[in-house]
Amino acid sequence: MAKHTTYFFSKDARAQAEFYIHALGGEIVSIMTHGQLPDASEEMKDKVMHLSLVAAGATFYMTDEIFGSVQPGNNIYQSLEFATEEEAHQAFNRLAEDGTIRYPLTPAFWGALHGQVQDKFDVLWMITTEAKPQS
């Protein structure tokens, strides 16, 4: 079983989150910027890497798009977080059948597996595992 979250890629994640809070009620739970990473460039320091928002009682994630332009069709990912690596690999591989792997399912710096795939119906998916405590 997976935990589902909608993940928005945004031109301005903070402004978009504030709009949803105004429209739907809620709050920003957390924000991590690229400036919190080691060796972050001055240009990227204020860009949102991960924002967690609760609006209308639902949790959403957001990020500032930094690798391309945001447009309808590439700005919303369905994010599934699995408890085990086996479940994550199985879901990732099945979604990739006749689709496109946008980012392979590999270990991420925050202690989880992470990958991105576009399925054969053009739906964008992020597949992750629960983050393991860093030692």
TrEMBL record:
Coiled coil: none annotated. InterPro entries: Glyas_Bleomycin-R_OHBP_Dase (IPR029068), Glyas_Fos-R_dOase_dom (IPR004360), PhnB-like (IPR028973). Gene3D superfamilies: 2,3-Dihydroxybiphenyl 1,2-Dioxygenase, domain 1 (3.10.180.10). It holds the Pfam family Glyoxalase. Residues 4-127 form the Glyoxalase/fosfomycin resistance/dioxygenase domain. SUPFAM superfamilies: Glyoxalase/Bleomycin resistance protein/Dihydroxybiphenyl dioxygenase (SSF54593). This is VOC family protein. It comes from Paenibacillus hexagrammi. The lineage of its organism: Bacteria, Bacillati, Bacillota, Bacilli, Bacillales.
